[in-house]
Amino acid sequence: MEMRSKEEIEIGRDITATLTPLSFCLHTFYLHTHCSACFSSLPIPNPNPNPNSLFYCSPPCSAALSPLHHSSAERHLPPSAHSSHLCTALRLLLSHRPTSSSRLAGLLSNRHILTSLSVHDDVSERISVGAGAMAEAIAKQRGIPNDDAVLEEATIALSAVLTNAVEVHDNEGRALGIAVFDQIFSWINHSCSPNACYRFVLSSSSHSGEAKLGIAPHLQMNSSGVSISSSEFAKGGLGYGPRLVVRSIKKINKGEEVTVAYTDLLQPKAMRQSELWSKYRFVCCCKRCSALPSSYVDHALQEISAITCESSGSCSKFLKDMADRRLTECIDDVILEYLSVGDPESCCEKLEEILTQGLKEHLEVIEVKPDCIFMLHPLHHHSIKAYTTLASAYKVCACDLLSVDSETDINQLKAFDMSRISAAYSLVLAGATHHLFNSESSLIASVANFWTGAGESLLSLSKSSGWSMCVNLGLVIPNLASAMKFKCTKCSLMDRFRAGMLNGQIKSADFENVSNEFLHCVSDITQKVWGFLISDCQFLQSCKDPIISSWLMSTKSSSTVDVEVCVNKTNMCYTNESENSVSMCHEQTLADHAVACIFQLGVHCLAYGGLLASICYGPHSHLVCHVQNVLEHEKNFVLYSH
């Protein structure tokens, strides 16, 4: 099945009303911290969670879900088999029964494909074991024999949940549980270049503006050759639970199919295809996956460079694939070690070594020469993962230093340096993904988060107490407050963001103009402060400009990335030596300008991230409101300082 637009839809429009689920369940880990009915945080978390005991934020939530919980067979599941997927499937069976075509509530179950004898993997094993536990629980609940008919019913229900359920995320991005929605949402197909996305609305008291339904089912033959009639399109969920709204992220023509993404779009094609097959048993044939040769974005996300001392040296795709797997292992091992051991400084050193020096170890293949070095493309998906981790790890390093001894001069200065480099990596991350976004606009949600993160990091740096530390060391420090200006005179970004907050709408042409203005301003500002931000960081010094495409590094026949420092293009030079070796390139007024630029850069990044977020999630979403609050605080700070 598929859903198509009933009319022409502009970018950034709600195309469904707020949808409630057919069935849902919290993950076990959150049963004691969140309401089991609406998934909002509990005011007082319960310290003793029990799979058979649910907790609610309010009497209405308890009255809504408690009867369903006690009527379903989930109470009879053994503790070892209790999971959100099994509970969701059992709750779904209370009000719906499978049809002869193995559909449940009009939803495709993929039952025969997922449990095919020719494909035995984790998914088929999970269904076999889970359906067995469900069948036993159903038999106990109904007081009937546990026969093949009950097992078939359980298998179809669990398959339908695995095929149609979506992870419900909170404002911090945590996956709280799962939910299955009716055909309005579940019949929307996947694309790796989608024109729509969806947001969740949690808490029983929050409201999302109602929109008329802008999509309708495109009736066609199902996989069994049976014609699907409009009578099977039964709308309506439970009326409570975590809610969902579908929103356009591109301009959609009347009659065009509406699609969303089932997987991470910043993964290369092979990884997306593998995940889609393992979870849903289909091969994506969208325009991005079908492109020959591969699209620029997919090429960059998986590109590995092989550097040899011989200019004519080259390596086969097989060898590059081997190097890719080994580099993947190296980066994943470093990140896993960081998450388990908690040593951010070591993590930063190891990741930067991989990014700068590549894979130098000898692959046990005869064709590979000892002097062959494999490098990740700076837009490789693991490079992007590394930038994300480095921005976070450097920030943690700064916090750790200040928590140990915030009174020590050297600790304060070192923490300031860590914050500076963290902000630089945040900017690199935003610039890199925006470069991909220029070719694949469906990456808008990821880019919105990265620009927002870069903006907050830069604003935090602009007001860091580390500047006063530099005063103690006798350095010439700019008067930040006197040099700051909140609103840019060269672009309409701030006005466009505020207008978006009022009406929640923007036209495609307007968005393109604002984006061009933003990139021009940000690139100009970045040139003035980039040398300061990347001082003493070898890998970042190889990035000429994190905003425009020329930031992509050149790799020559050497053991490391060619480093070109662009300090001479900035208005500020910096080093952290305690002696009088830190100087301003020019005079005090230039210093004022240079540091104020960091503030201006942060404001631009934050406002643009908020504008992108308003397109993805709507003007009243959590991220947009957060950006608005931060910008309002910064505006008041500047006015007060003046």
Short description:
The chain is mainly alpha-helical. The chain is built from 21 helices and 13 strands. It has helices at 59-71, 84-95, 111-114, 122-142, 148-164, 183-186, 269-280, 287-290, 296-301, 317-341, 344-357, 381-404, 409-437, 444-462, 466-472, 480-483, 493-503, 508-533, 538-541, 588-617, 622-641, and strands spanning 3-5, 23-26, 103-104, 107-108, 166-169, 175-180, 189-190, 196-201, 215-217, 243-248, 259-260, 304-307, 373-376.
Structure overview:
- The protein is mainly α.
- It has 4 domains: about 5-260, no CATH class; about 270-300, no CATH class; about 300-405; about 410-555 and about 560-640, no CATH class.
- It has 21 helices and 13 strands.
- The protein has a 3-stranded antiparallel β-sheet, with helices on one face.
- The chain is globular.
- The chain starts with a strand and ends with a helix.
Number of helical segments?
Answer: 21
Query: Would you tell me the overall average pLDDT?
Result: 82
Strand order of the main beta sheet, please?
A: 2-6-5
Helix percentage: 40-55%
Share of β-strand residues:
5-15%
User: By helix and strand content, what is the structural category?
Assistant: mainly alpha
Query: How many structural domains does the protein architecture include?
Result: 4
Distance between the termini: 60 Å
Evaluate the radius of gyration.
Answer: 27 Å
Low-confidence stretches: 221-227, 474-483, 553-591
Silhouette: globular
> Quick one: how many beta strands?
13
Main sheet properties: 3 strands, antiparallel
